[in-house]
Design brief:
seven-stranded mixed sheet, 393 residues, alpha+beta
């Protein structure tokens, strides 16, 4: 239920303009007012097969509301694209030209919407674009109405087919942003402390790509190519692939979570990748010949990293050399050559999360402690023996 009660009429001031093939009215208005005068025509294959809008995502609508209602910050300005509406029923709006104030041939108009005529369930003003922006804008029991001004574009009397054509043009015929570029831009737009708190994996990944002490410096898409040239690498690694790997390391390791300082967590992960580069120097230096820096390699060693970090930290070990001692034990478990024939110890042809889990698990099974014990293997054999004993009973 909207918090804006007792409102029977909404008045907008707009200019009549051309937009390619259409004549429309453009201006600005409080988002709450645009929400009150419009409705979403949601597609449903059974109940509303002629509907226009996709199913609403309450999470996305809530995020949009929070974005629009947050405190103004001069260093981080906010802006919305135009909300696009179409008046299907011309009876609900009165359009009156405002005489004597035309500017450079552009005529201003007053648009009065009668809210009493919008009380039934029929869509009389359709939300061609902007449903998520308007869904919570008029307020409810938990949210104040959004009175911040945003731009609008209102069409009068477009047919359903014309509406649908605009909807497709707006939503389908745009070139999407490269995900790596988008992730990098999101990092640069976010205050560092908030980034650490809300997107630790992305923050650590960005640090890995920009820190000169990191083996990933300059070799990840979106960073400086100088680092790649200094390591004789010709192909940049995908930022999102590395971010996914960092996320898996953070999720896999139990002990890294005991550190409350993100900088410390970053140093641990950086030291691990230093160890990987040191032990697998040939595979790292020749990405065209080996799969280590492909997605399957990054994911597999990220998962293994969680295991090795948890072997080191309880023993008070945190250096790259400490971690390299474990990595040397798995050095020959798999052949990472991109030209190897498929076999039990080759990685060629493997891809995806499931394959990465298998590779990381097989390598983890090779790890032994400084005493020479292979705790995982011994524990596995003991548990299998218990299972066999139970079955025989």
């Amino acid at each position: 239920m909207s918090k804006l009660k007792g409102v029977s009429q909404i008045e907008l001031i707009a200019y009549e303009t051309h937009n390619l093939d259409t004549i429309c009215f453009r201006g600005e208005s409080p988002l709450a007012h645009l929400a009150l005068i419009s409705q979403a025509d949601v597609f449903d294959q059974v109940t509303n097969p002629e509907g226009l809008q996709r199913d609403l995502s309450p999470k996305h609508a809530s995020e949009v509301y929070e974005y629009a209602s947050r405190e103004k910050n001069p260093d981080r300005p906010r802006a919305f694209p135009e909300v696009v509406l179409n008046v299907r029923d011309k009876k609900i709006v009165q359009i009156e030209e405002i005489k004597g104030v035309a500017e450079i041939g552009v005529k201003p108009f007053r648009l009065r919407f009668d809210l009493d005529k919008l009380q039934d369930n029929k869509v009389k003003v359709s939300r061609v674009d902007g449903n998520h922006r308007l869904y919570y804008a008029s307020g409810d029991d938990r949210r104040e109405p959004l009175l911040a001004a945003a731009p609008f574009q209102i069409h009068i009397g477009l047919s359903r087919e014309q509406e649908r054509a605009l909807f497709v043009d707006i939503n389908a015929n745009q070139k999407g942003l490269n995900t790596s570029h988008l992730a990098i831009m999101q990092h640069r737009l976010t205050q560092e402390e908030l980034e650490m708190r809300d997107h630790l994996d992305r923050w650590i990944t960005s640090k890995l790509t920009t820190d000169p002490e990191s083996p990933w410096h300059g070799v990840v898409g979106g960073g400086s190519n100088a680092g790649a040239r200094s390591q004789n690498l010709t192909r940049l690694v995908n930022f999102v692939a590395l971010q996914t790997g960092v996320s898996k390391t953070l999720a896999k390791s139990q002990y890294i979570r005991d550190f409350t300082n993100p900088i410390v967590q970053y140093i641990v992960i950086r030291n691990y990748w230093k160890a990987v580069k040191s032990v697998f120097a040939t595979e790292w230096a020749k990405p065209k010949e080996y799969l280590l820096l492909k997605n399957i390699g990054v994911l597999s060693f990220s998962l293994l990293g969680g295991t090795i970090i948890d072997r080191c930290l309880p023993r008070g070990k945190d250096s790259a050399e400490d971690m390299a001692a474990y990595l040397r034990q798995v050095k020959n478990r798999f052949d990472w050559s991109s030209k190897a024939a498929p076999g039990d110890n080759t990685v060629v042809g493997m891809s995806g999360n499931k394959a990465a889990l298998i590779l990381a698990g097989e390598m983890a099974a090779e790890l032994t402690e400084p005493s020479g014990e292979n705790l995982v293997k011994e524990l596995q054999d003991r548990l299998l023996a218990q299972a066999a004993s139970a079955n025989s009973d």
